[in-house]
Specification:
Elements lengths: L6 H98 L3 H64 L1
Helix pairs in contact: 1-2
């Protein structure tokens, strides 16, 4: 025989069911909150990692700027050296001209000595000129190499920065 429940008992059962439902919703919200907190912590880690990478890129750019400045200072020093060597070659030309002028007025014995001195100066002149040409070519190759290297490093930095910028935008 079915037992009829009193209205007081029915209210207690409804209250118990409502309490269970509230507990279930609370656990669901608590689980969602924990998941959101975990996701937020991961996003913060990613932002910190990107911030650190941005600082590293800035440091790398500063290092590269210093390296480029250093290379240009070396190139400037080499240019000064080449200019001095060019001046020495010019001085040799003047000395040869003076010897040629003196030779015209000299005796035969003195002309032979002047000829030997001219020959020696000519050989020295040729050697210096070849050295200057080789040094100039070497300097140009070094400059071209440094420019290529710098361009490659800048492209690499731009690519890295773009990747990190996209990751940062995606994480927002």
């Amino acid at each position: 025989v079915p037992v009829a429940l009193s209205p007081d008992v029915l209210d207690a059962k409804e209250l118990k069911d409502a309490h269970k439902q509230v507990e279930a919703e609370f656990r669901q919200q608590q689980s969602e909150t924990q998941a959101a907190e975990h996701e937020l912590a991961e996003l913060r880690k990613e932002v910190d990692r990107l911030r650190l990478r941005t600082e590293q890129i800035g440091d790398l750019r500063a290092d590269q700027a210093r390296a480029i400045t250093s290379e240009w200072e070396k190139i400037d020093a080499e240019a000064v050296t080449l200019a001095l060597e060019r001046k020495e070659v010019g001085d040799l030309r003047v000395e040869v001209s003076e010897l040629l002028a003196a030779r015209k007025e000299a005796t035969v014995g003195r002309q032979l000595r002047i000829d030997k001195a001219l020959q020696q100066l000519y050989l020295e002149f040729q050697q210096r000129e070849q050295d200057l040409v080789a040094a100039s070519r070497q300097q140009m190759q070094a400059v071209e190499g440094e420019i290529s290297s710098t361009q490659a490093r800048l492209l690499e930095l731009q690519s890295s920065w773009e990747e990190h910028r996209q990751v940062l935008q995606a994480s927002r």
